[in-house]
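Reviewer 2 asked us to include a model.

Predict the structure of this chain.
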Amino acid sequence: MGLRDWVWGRKKEDAAPSAVPSESLTLPSSPAPPAQPDPVTAPAARMYNPYDGMDTGGIGGIRAVQSVYAMPQSPQFLFDAEAKIKRRSWGDNLAYYTGVGYLSGWLGGGAFGAATGIASSPEPGMVDTNRLKINRFLNSTASRGTRAGNALGMVGMIFALSESGLFYVGENHVPVDYPDALNTLAAGFLTGALFRAPRGPQLAAVAGGAGVAAAAALLAGRSVIKGL
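Predicted model (structure tokens):
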């Protein structure tokens, strides 16, 4: 081996190890991104069910499990006094019963007046034309509907004021607890008696009894339909 080959070969041998990268300079490979689920084969999303994994068999099934974790069906109150108030204010009560009474009376009286106007006949000696028939129909409907609406609207107003007043007196000035239904029944009696008071005490007493019966029917309806 010549001097030249020995020099150049030595340099190649010295340069060969430097070509190999050191382990300390090797960068770690980044992890592969997670595989995205296939929207076609992925299971569809569903609502969370708190009863998953529970034994829903046996008597009652799922209803027996739900009864253990039953949620309240009515609003929850911080104070007991708020929970006991399950009725409208006196202003809402007044607007509600007055409006319902007038609307019911107008519709009922208007329907009766319409039937009466259709069945009525003209006065003797007059020719019954279509214009007269329409005139009788409209007059009878408006007259009876307005009178019945005004009467029942007045009844609703008296009842609303009486019931709200009795509830106020009972809650603030009567130390003895009694059922709320007594206020409604007493309001029914006062409504009938005051409405027929101009026609004498006997008729007022009879109307008061009818008012008590109507108030009892209202209480029965409240147990079925909330908000009456």
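The first helix runs from residue 3 to 19. Residues 174 and 194 are 24 Å apart (CA to CA). We have added this to the supplementary material.
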